[in-house]
Queue: 4 jobs
Job 1
Amino acid sequence: MLGRLNHVAIAVPDLAAAAAVYRDTLGARVTAPQALPEHGVTVVFIDVGNTKIELLEPLGDASPITAFLAKNPSGGMHHVCYEVADILAARDSLKAAGARVLGDGQPRIGAHGKPVLFLHPKDFQGTLVELEQS
């Protein structure tokens, strides 16, 4: 079911400062910030060749990243994203196996313009998992 690791997401309190560290200290190519109001975040991506790092900053007070940063003020790893060939088939298979899909269970369009779903971290050893249709 799982394809390649698409990205590792890191929640940050200051997107511009975090992007500068990756760009200026590590020499990484950093994309322009992209606001995703439907997900409550602003993101940038860092291409590391075989995958990406996604830096997330809260967008608005209702952002799920706000609660994460309240518990982790310096930021930290938020989720991992895996590609799947068919997101609906993956969802149905996971639900049949007892995994919990967050939200209403319907895919939403993510930062790459593709359908995504999130899976409950308690079902995956404390790690929030995002699935993205490849």
Job 2
Amino acid sequence: MNTLRYSLLSIFATISLGLMAIEIDNTAGNLASNIGESCDVTELIVTGEINAADIDFISNELKQLQGLDLSAASIVAYAGERVLTGGTEYRANELPDYALMGLKATSITLPSSLTSIGEGALTSTCVESIAIPESVTSIGAHAFAECRNLSAISLPNSVTSIGEGLFMGCVNLSSATFSESITTLPDRTFENCSSLAEVSILAVTNIGKRAFLGCSALKNIALPSSLTAIGAEAFYGSGIETAELRTATSLATIGDFAFAKCESLTEVLFGDVSPTLGRGVFFDDSALAYITLPASTTVIPEFTFKGTTVINPEVIREGVTEIKDYALTGWANIEDFKIPSTLNTIGSGAMANWENIGQIDVTDVHQVPELGDNVWRNVDQASIILYVDTADEEAYASAAQWNEFTIKNNYVESDATIEADTSGITLRYSKPMLTISSKGEEIVFVEIFDLNGRARYANKSESATAEVDTSDLAGGNIVVRITLADGSITSAKLLLN
């Protein structure tokens, strides 16, 4: 027989606050008759058995419910009239799809014997915290989506399977912990969880599409060594400050726009990790200042660094053979750029909107690269110096788009003197001394780089002449960069013998 028990506390609450707390020892299918459809229950404790019809009653009729405790109840199989999402059959120990969707209760305790949580089962509820029973092995897609009051979640070791969009739109969710039993983080798992600041994914091999999209409070995340793939837009618009990829030693692919629009991202660290990059991986990361691409990277995909205005230009290093369409668009702060000798193709608009570019060095590029349409759109090419090797001047001067630059030879042989440009800079090398003289403004800074962009020397100067002892520099080609007092910069290539 079903019994209906009112505690003294429940009676007091009913009298003083207009609230009603009820505890029911139920048999499956009788919850509606025990409570009555018009009852304004605010706190409900159910023991005994419940089925899909009972759950349907809770979700549809108990509109004032603030607390629901099913910890001592067990869900039994159901076969009968259509309930919930229209089904007529439900298995035991499973919270059906969309079972409690939209429930206003802020406190929900699930049955301790529960083994599965269905798709959308608790979506859009007002729950503030919830414990997943250790008997649960699977949780369906969107099960907790749009639970806007949920602040923290931890999945027990028993859970081995979760569906996509599990916590998407949980705007107050600040921390999430997944055990090592979760190896796949499905698409959209935390999409638009704008308060998410801490997350633990100990054994994940795959981060799905849009998994952390819009997680603006997420500044850092520890990526496990097991990780092999980061999906498209996985961290799009997140608050990531450093993309520490060195720990993800198995990482093989990074999908399209995976770290795009991350306005706080300042550095990307690959180390020995060499994933294949999709399109626009760092698209519009306006604060990105440092990145060294994996040695295996030979192609810069479309939109990869579009809008990364403060990036280190040496990211385009030797070994890169192709820069695809719009890959470097909007590098507004780049003043001088050296094209690697391996480059053979530059795509459409790839170097458009380079507002401050003053010189481009192709002295090592002896086969004129093929160009897409309007590679340097919105760039005044006639005001830009294109430094070429003597043997290649005619080839560049006759090549479309390249011939729109001001072409100069800036190759300095040992013991030779050259007027580097109209700034009136003269370089003389007499082993081991390099003498730099200015006929105009004083020299304030001298830097020397190797052809991979690595700094080899830097020193201040406050005169029209600067001397550098090159004894500690290995022979071969170097690039000398001279900054004058008026802020102008001159670069020259020098061959040390």
Job 3
Amino acid sequence: MLAKSPIPKVPPKSRLAVFKFSSCDGCQLSLLNLEEHLLELVDAVEVAYFLEARRRELPPPYDVGLVEGSISTPHEAQRIRQVRRDCRYLVAIGACASSGGIQALRNWADIGDFVGAVYPNPQYIRTLDTATPIAAHVFVDFELRGCPVNHAQLLELVSALLVGRRPNVPTSSLCLECKRRGLPCVLVTHGQPCLGPAVQAGCGALCPACNRGCYGCFGPMEQPNLNSLGDRFLELGASHRQIKHLLRMFNAYLEPFKQASDHHERLEQQK
């Protein structure tokens, strides 16, 4: 009598978890906006935790954890440490998670003034003095920029992590995307301040395609020359105050933007 062959075991699916901290949910929506690709992703992974999409919660550990939002409260500072322990790979997605986001603008002000102006009972609010990126609290395996993230880059990132290769995400400047689309340079042809030469590609040159300067949604590129770019803005008639405000937007607390905006604030105060 022939021995029965053992039944082959079906390899378990990789487990994906998506976490929200202080944010607007836009980067989570980018994941949901993958549309037909989302179905392919669900076939390849088990969505173990994603409250934006489903109520079912599976316990850790997780293979890949995507984190949206900055750390803005004592509870979040404690929770992110547990999330780090629960995930094999931890990825910060979006400007809030990778730089602190718009809410990091409060880092240049007194948080007590904001709390008192917004909430009728500020004594119940528990918040940190600063809003900071995920990497300021725990080790992050990868950061995906954008406000919101590019959904195609998000799919590339998750796919790469699942098969164990390095994600193919561009680090070149936005100007390269403008050239590929055949767009005239807003800075040269219109004389408008544009952060494109110093900003990482990723949006497909959305604003320059509408004849508007780049606002820096994807943060600084590798080795941005913000001093030279700021000098050019001054030649075009921009003030130090205007340059400071341009830099203090979606990725204001990333070090290259922070240093440059602080520099222009000092020059503004000297006048």
Job 4
Amino acid sequence: MATTEISPERRREVNKVAVSAFAGTAMEWYDYILYGTASAIVFTKLFFPADDIAVATLLSFATFAAGFVARPVGALIFGHIGDRIGRRAAVVGSITLMGLSTGIIGMLPTYEAIGVSAAIALLLMRLFQGISAGGEWGGAMVLVLEHAPKSRQGIYSAIPQLGSPVATLLSTGALTIVSTLPDEAFFSWGWRIPFLLAFPFLAIGLYLRYRVEESPVFKELQSKQEVVKVPIFSAIRHTGGRMILGGMAALLGGSGFFIVTTFMISYGVQELGYERQTMLSATLWGALVQICVIIISGRVADRIGAWKVCAAGGLISALLALPVFWLVDTGNVVLATIGIMIGMGSLTIPYGPIGSLLSGLFPAKYRYSAMAVSYNVFGIIGGFLPILSQSILLATGHQSYGVGLLLAGVALITMVGALGAGSKAVRRRREKEDAEEAALIAAEA
């Protein structure tokens, strides 16, 4: 059911969908990553009791983790909408929820003003962010890949992934700019500006997404009356093992990222004494590296296969995990920046083509639900990695080797998942499913 050759007009439509997916994903991840960065340098001081900075940091990271717990809920909700009503309707709904919840965070009163209610309100908005993010990624990816020619799904799957590093540039850049304000101004009103920008970004995202057409694959499913009544049940029943492998393969890019950014920023500022701007700037350089790596890994995936790229990326990241922390631990600004760039770049290798890998694992009739749920159920782990990293840091006497080993472990899980997803047994099963689907369509034509 995938397109193999496309006309110039069709190519223009595919590119329009890809640009829309990129812009929408960038807006979504701007909101989501902004929260993660702010949880390390802002929320600790403003939304929780500050008597013990270590405890306040753990509480701040706990609200960060809550967004990941909510992501499978969003995957179920928007996956069901995407497989039953349409991919386009789902991605419009997810982007709206994300934009509103993020903008509202910028208007919340702090702990000093309303006490524990501030933390509760922050948690609620974070849960809405999580629900939105749970449906966004799978929808944007499915919409692009179901428009794209099969021979170029590696590079087209990389285009929405570019939204993440661009969002890192935008969100971290915005916080970097406002963090140059005096502390009194930054903590009273400056930090709110990047969150309030979510409102105009939402307007742009909605405009772009309303302009794209529904997936031709979903239109065909509708015309043949092959839309599944409860997609997630069918997905689990027929492809439960593949959902596990896909989630494992996606773990590093979707979750390990937050060790090298959210936790690393907190660790660098609070434990090693780096300036706040230093750690934020290092993350910006890392995002630039990510952009290059995503494009390269997507192109390579079209040549050798997405699963091979993801497996290689997991292995490389595992080998580099400890050196990344050693560089940051030197206390040297240049070496620390290089360490973060290496860490963000290596974990991005499997992140670039992961959409192509996951999309190829599942039949179209429940692809959205299967991709979204597998990605986001394992994504729960990512939400707890900063708080787990902080706990390991405390347990090891503020030594970073334990967190480095944690990052290496996450990377190896991704390698194993990618190898499983690319196994001969899985590939034979997908070929059989595609043949059965093609035969059914031919019989009904």
